[in-house]
Write a structure and sequence with these properties.
CATH topology of the largest domain: Rossmann fold
CATH architecture of the largest domain: 3-Layer(aba) Sandwich
CATH class of the largest domain: Alpha Beta
Helix content: 25-40%
Largest sheet: 6 strands, parallel
Number of helices: 14
Strand order of the largest sheet: 5-6-4-1-7-8
Number of strands: 17
Shape: elongated
Strand content: 15-25%
CATH superfamily of the largest domain: Phosphoglycerate kinase, N-terminal domain
């Protein structure tokens, strides 16, 4: 039994209404769910509760609406969830209110009521105590299974947890377990692969893992902040200006660290950010004016793949380049294939890395694919996640 929280598996759920905060924030395409990965990730907890005789009241956000937005209704999610569960899922017309309360109380054991988009309520992101109290009124118990939103202190992730007997969902438990092991007890060597656009998004993890990792492999547009910090020309490449000083600090810290910080040694350049742009291979990293770096080159990809192959633990967050443009996808694809083939423990952060694995058909070939991008980075950094901390044992 976990010493920090009580698992949903130990909750007395028979004949009780359970409010479950899930992360059902899925991409939509023409009113239908385009990728149901997060819905599928929520199924084990939902099924456990239904089989235990509970009435399940689900709440989640979808996108970033500013008020009521029909385009971000949970209706497509309800439809897809019903297909996956093989049982009807009732969609409430709102998040809280008298009608929603009546529906929740009328939901029989073994049935699911899905509330409307939680972020359509203005008090959600403000962690409004009145909204938290209204959510608490809907159920007897609370389960947080939304790891992807656990780094947000919102009414449905943190506030309501203090008002009901609260439990950790199966997905949230596994997420914390897998990521904490990377941070605190990895098999060696530990290789971190960090990409994406901004050094500022990764600065906390970089600072932490310079003292923990054996190698940190840098890719994506964030490498250009490191190059600028070294007075290396970046041409028209995307550079996070505020990331230059941060990169300089990381480079200085790496000098006194046992961790090897590695940057690209060659690049794929384009004239513009477009699939049909003129492109060339640069055997080096001095980007000429009129060109922008849009992917790591083949020498970098091969070197990174070799480091990944020899790792005991691999953590990857962030693409190596503009993988959404096929001519600039080779670096990210090469890293993804190396991670999928690695013999060591492989953990991938959410967001673009997960999208890349899915695009290359490799999502089922890693040991753990996190549903939380920002949440996974904050946990690795050592920050306390409000949605997790609120589940602490009394």
């Amino acid at each position: 039994m976990n010493s920090r929280w009580i698992s949903v598996g130990d909750a007395p759920v028979e004949g009780r209404r359970v409010l479950v905060r899930a992360d059902l924030n899925v991409p939509l395409n023409q009113g239908e769910v385009a990728d149901d990965t997060r819905i599928r990730a929520a199924l084990p907890t939902i099924r456990l509760l239904l089989e235990g005789g509970a009435s399940v009241v689900l709440v989640s956000h979808l996108g970033r609406p500013t008020g009521i937005d029909p385009a971000l209704s949970m209706a497509p999610v309800a439809s897809r969830l019903a297909d996956l569960l093989g049982t009807p899922v009732e969609l409430a017309p709102a998040v809280v209110g008298d009608d929603v309360l009546a529906r929740a109380r009328a939901t029989p054991p073994g049935s699911v009521l899905l509330l409307e988009n939680s972020r359509c309520e203005p008090g959600e992101t403000d962690n409004d105590p009145d909204l938290a109290a209204a959510l608490a009124e809907l159920a007897d118990l609370y389960v947080n299974d939304a790891f992807g939103a656990a780094h947000r202190a919102h009414a449905s992730t943190e506030g309501v947890a203090h008002l009901l007997p609260s439990y950790a969902g199966l997905l949230l438990e596994r997420e914390v377990e897998e990521l904490t092991r990377v941070r605190d007890n990895p098999e060696r060597p530990l290789v971190m692969i960090l990409g994406g656009a901004k050094v500022s998004d990764k600065i906390g993890v970089l600072g932490r893992f310079l003292d923990v990792a054996d190698q940190i492999l840098i890719g994506g547009a964030m490498c250009f902040s490191f190059f600028r910090a070294q007075r290396i020309a970046t041409g028209d490449s995307l550079v996070e200006e505020e990331g230059i000083d941060l990169a300089r600090e990381v480079l200085a810290a790496a000098e006194g660290s046992d961790c090897e910080l590695r940057l690209p040694v060659d690049l794929i350049l384009g004239r513009s950010f477009a699939a049909d742009t003129e492109r060339r291979h640069l055997d080096g990293v001095e980007v000429p004016d009129g060109w922008m770096g849009l992917d790591v080159g083949p020498r970098t990809t091969a070197a990174y793949a070799e480091a990944i192959a020899g790792a005991g633990t691999v953590f990857w967050n962030g693409p190596m380049g503009a993988f959404e443009l096929e001519p600039f996808a080779a670096g990210t694809r090469g890293v993804a294939e190396a991670v999928a083939a690695a013999k060591g423990k492989t953990v991938v952060g959410g967001g673009d890395s997960a999208a890349a694995l899915a695009a290359f058909g490799l999502a089922d070939q890693v040991d753990w694919l996190s549903t939380g991008g920002g949440a996974s980075l904050e946990l690795l950094e050592g920050k306390e996640l409000p949605g997790v901390a609120a589940l602490a044992r009394p």
